[in-house]
Amino acid sequence: MARAGRLLGLLLCGALLVACERPASPAPTAARTEPRSASAPPAAAATTVAPAPALLPVRAAYTAVSGSMAPAWFAADGGFFAQQGLDVDLRFVATSTTLTPALISGEVQIAETGGGEIIQATLAGADLVLVGALVPVLVFSIYGDPALGRLEDLAGKRLAVSRYGSATDYAAQQALKRADLVPGRDVAVIQAGGVPEALAAVQAGGVEAAVVSPPTTLQARQAGLRELVDLGAQEVPYLQASVALGRGQLSEEPERARRFLRALVAGMDRARREPEWAKAVIGQYTRTQDPAVLDETYRAFAPRYPALPYVPAEAVEASLAEIAERDERARGADPARFYDNSLVAEIEARR
């Protein structure tokens, strides 16, 4: 019995020795993780960046290679159209007789053009409206023979304009009336075909003076002619450059025009603050690199770009008075019928 007990003890002791010598099972290892920045969100909380909204397409056109049309150039070159969420297809359409029908048909959605053409078309039944005035005064001068001391000295002489019924003709009428001269009676008004031709007529001695616009004013001075009157400085109301569209578009989908006007305002503001940039843009669109020409154009137009392009009632009245001489439908027409300043008022309210 004692021997059996000793044998059992030896067996237990051997078992314990084996257990003590057996290597322990390795501890389970944690899953390996990459270090992560404290600012990085957990993968489950990662956000998806929404794609930028598509730009709103706009078919727009301007009708003259002139400093009066530069606000649209400033908006395009300065990136202000894109900033307003617009993809503007900006084109040059050489004459208002082509651009106005394109605006009526919807081929062009927004036009930068003379206000008189829009008023004339509306009188004829077109459903158009002016929503902004970019150059609300006449920017023309009368240059003449250096022997003339002042505009009144044109009595009994000849004054050249581009064509009858044109803006130069209206400028001549207004300038002569302000000098107490009656066009056609005191001064013969002659049409020359264009502004360069009018200047050439003075140089050739065919007339004593001509209505010219910048930068032809520079050429007139270089030719030794005398400036008899600067109508821009006199701030004679006139819609030399305006923004127009279909009235249906204004009532049903005004967002294009609203953004378009905001971009123009931003472009004109930068042009006033940064003359060298503005002149470079004008040079690009007019294909002119002559610093003197660019200076002349900027000097004439930049002070006339409004901070807020409201359409002045008196400028519409002036256009109606001009049109009434050849179209009786303009007589007694209500100026408010032809313009809407609500979009410009919105821009002012948000300033």
Highlighted features:
351 residues; alpha/beta; D-Maltodextrin-Binding Protein, domain 2; five-stranded mixed beta sheet; globular; disordered N terminus
Tell me what the structure shows.
The structure is a single chain. This protein is of the alpha/beta class and 351 residues long. The protein has 2 domains: 56-137 and 238-349, 3-Layer(aba) Sandwich (D-Maltodextrin-Binding Protein, domain 2); 141-234, Periplasmic binding protein-like II (D-Maltodextrin-Binding Protein, domain 2), CATH 3.40.190. The chain has helices at residues 2-21, 70-77, 80-83, 96-105, 115-123, 167-178, 195-204, 216-222, 231-234, 247-252, 255-273, 275-286, 291-301, 313-324, 342-349, and strands at residues 56-62, 86-92, 110-113, 128-137, 141-144, 158-161, 188-191, 209-212, 226-230, 237-246. Helix 6 (167-178) links the parallel strand 6 (158-161) and strand 7 (188-191). The protein is globular.
